[in-house]
Write a structure and sequence with these properties.
Length: 202
């Protein structure tokens, strides 16, 4: 065996020792933990997660509130009709605020087509609704108690009373143009407050 062959054998032996050492080092050294921050999230996977959240929102049960208008029952008798309206707290605010505003706006076209109507005058407006820790003040403009005659005034007051009692656990007071409405209308109808089913029993 000449000098060159011996050198080649020594070089091959050295390389084998290095390779075996590297393999052994990788096999026995502890692996570093992979954290969520080390994982890249593709746009595709993000979009799919968002879509999943949207599906979950779609499954959320729809909430309704009732507002009182007037209509006819199966015997063709005039009754106060509780009409369902879709309610979203994040969009519509508190129940009482949404209910009163809905009452003042009146029934929708499809509800009118079914014979539902209101005695609330078309030019009635909500000035403001004050929700205090111990009571609620509903402040309407004077159009609410103007015109239509005594019978119409009684009916619109009952619409309001039934609506607020259904949508608030606090005592509710009616104000007209900023003044507490203990006497309403040109006929001087007495209204006991806070509003209740017996407020007009005078």
């Amino acid at each position: 065996m000449n000098k060159n062959q011996k050198f080649l054998l020594l070089f091959i032996g050295f390389c084998m020792i290095v390779v075996i050492g590297v393999v052994a080092f990788n096999a026995f050294m502890p692996k570093p933990e992979i954290t969520p921050e080390d994982v890249e999230v593709s746009e595709r996977s993000v979009a799919e997660e968002v879509m999943g959240e949207e599906k979950e929102e779609a499954k959320t049960e729809t909430q309704y509130l009732n507002v009182y208008f007037i209509g006819k029952n199966e015997h063709n008798e005039e009754v106060y009709k509780a009409v369902k309206r879709v309610y979203n707290k994040d969009v519509d605010g508190s129940q009482i605020r949404f209910a009163v505003n809905t009452l003042i706006k009146g029934p929708k076209a499809e509800e009118k087509a079914k014979g539902v109507y209101t005695e609330v005058p078309i030019d009635s407006e909500v000035i403001n609704i004050s929700e205090l820790p111990d009571k609620v003040i509903v402040n309407l403009n004077s159009a609410f108690v103007t015109g239509g005659g005594t019978d119409s005034l009684y009916k619109r007051l009952y619409q309001l009373i039934k609506t607020v009692k259904l949508n608030s656990n606090l005592p509710v007071y009616l104000f007209i143009d900023g003044q507490r409405a203990d006497v309403v209308g040109g006929e001087g109808i007495m209204l006991s407050q806070p509003l209740s089913n017996s407020s007009l029993d005078n």
